[in-house]
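Annotated sample (chain length 113).
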Amino acid sequence: MFVPTGKTRRVWVRPLIAFTALAVFGTVLWLFSDGKAPPRDATYAVAGECVENAGTFHKPVLFIVDCNDSKADYKVESTPGYKGQCPPDQDRYQQTRKSGIVDTTLCLSRVKH
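Output written by the structure step:
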């Protein structure tokens, strides 16, 4: 009968190291997040939602926000499609791809706080 004479293997060490590494990684992610969902791009905005302009008037960067939020700059009145026109009393926002193709068109009215 064979009797091992060396050190015994600790089979639990590798799973413990893996678990510890995952726990540290998760803790770091949790510490650097603010617990909020990432901002939703205006590409997905529908009529009735409000958007915040994080850019400038000439180079807008729009994100969907709650209409009661003080950050809400505009309310989406309609989404007329890719080449749609907006009424003259509303601002038109178009988002284009790098290829120059219009991706989103929104008709916007200013939110009064």
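Annotation: The beta strands are 40-41, 50-53, 62-65, 74-78, 91-96, 102-110.
Annotation: Residues 55 and 61 are 5 Å apart (CA to CA).
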